[in-house]
Design goal:
single chain, 6-stranded mixed beta sheet, Nucleotidyltransferase, domain 5, alpha/beta
């Protein structure tokens, strides 16, 4: 079974999610981004520690900043020196969905937990798209 990780890459926090069975997406501890090299090092360690086979990175599709975000996300993923398969998928509205899911259940702090829930939603989209093939 392939181990899959998803990232919701932001300028301040990186949400992380994991699927060990190809069916369930589990949010993990987020990575607080001090700078890109520190964040890339922590993400790389996570990927290595879990022996990840597939990396899914979310990119917001549509909107005026799509090209800029695509460049930033691609650059960050290149810093990881990841040897497995990499997929970029649309992350549109994942952060909004994460807020809606947790409304009334957890306080909206800036600790990155919402980012990891958004990463889990991105991973669920990826897993669902694989079922359709």
């Amino acid at each position: 079974m392939e181990k899959i990780a998803a990232l919701d890459i932001g300028l301040k926090r990186i949400g992380v999610a994991l699927s060990l069975d190809g069916k369930i997406a589990l949010p993990q501890n987020p990575i607080i981004r001090i700078n890109r090299n520190q964040a890339a090092k922590e993400v790389k360690k996570f990927l290595d520690d879990w022996n990840i086979d597939i990396l899914v990175a979310g990119i917001p599709i549509g909107g005026s900043s799509e090209e800029e975000m695509k460049k930033r996300v691609s650059h960050f993923v290149n810093l990881l020196d990841f040897k497995g398969k990499i997929y970029f998928i649309d992350e549109s509205f994942s952060s909004y969905e994460a807020k809606e899911i947790t409304k009334g259940k957890m306080r909206q702090k800036r600790d990155g937990k919402l980012d990891s829930i958004a990463a889990a939603l991105i991973l669920e989209r990826f897993l669902e798209s694989r079922k359709c093939k």
